[in-house]
Amino acid sequence: MGAFLYANGAPDEISIGYIGFGMVRCQLANSFSEELGKIYEKPYKDMSFKRFSEKEVERWNQICPEGLDLFLWVSDTGGKLSGSQCKKVISDLDKYPMKWPNSWRTDWLEKYERIKELIRWCAKTRHTLYIE
DSSP code of 51? Predict the structure, then answer.
């Protein structure tokens, strides 16, 4: 089981485990800023996590760019990003390069790069990206 990312007519489709997809997004948040990463990873680190504090939500909204926000919070089951949303996402992903720890699995980094290219394709062709 895992997340399956595709778009109608796209040259690639990506399958990545839920844990891998979550770890990629956690690392992306950390690559943007340590503060954003600490907020984002809370539900991943605490299985009893219920909700973010008002202060955390306010801070998130102050520092997280729109495209990054869209990608980090799109559902990994039944989620989708329109072509215009993909344009915002890829713009932010290109601005904030992934800082990948040397000790991490390289297959997750490779899948992240493929996901970026699929998002870029959707942005250019105005196709919807589906995540199931």
Answer: -
> Which of 2, 7, 57 is closest to 24 using CA atoms?
2
Domain boundaries, the chain: 3-131
Question: Which pTM was predicted?
Answer: 0.93
pLDDT in tens, 93-125: 999 888 888 777 888 889 999 999 999 999 999
CB 111 within 8 A of CB 20: yes
pLDDT tens column, 58-74: 999 999 999 999 999 99
Longest CA–CA separation in the chain, Å: 42
Are 88 and 64 in contact by the 8 Å Cβ rule? The answer is no
* Whether the Cβ atoms of residue 131 and residue 118 lie closer than 8 Å to each other: no
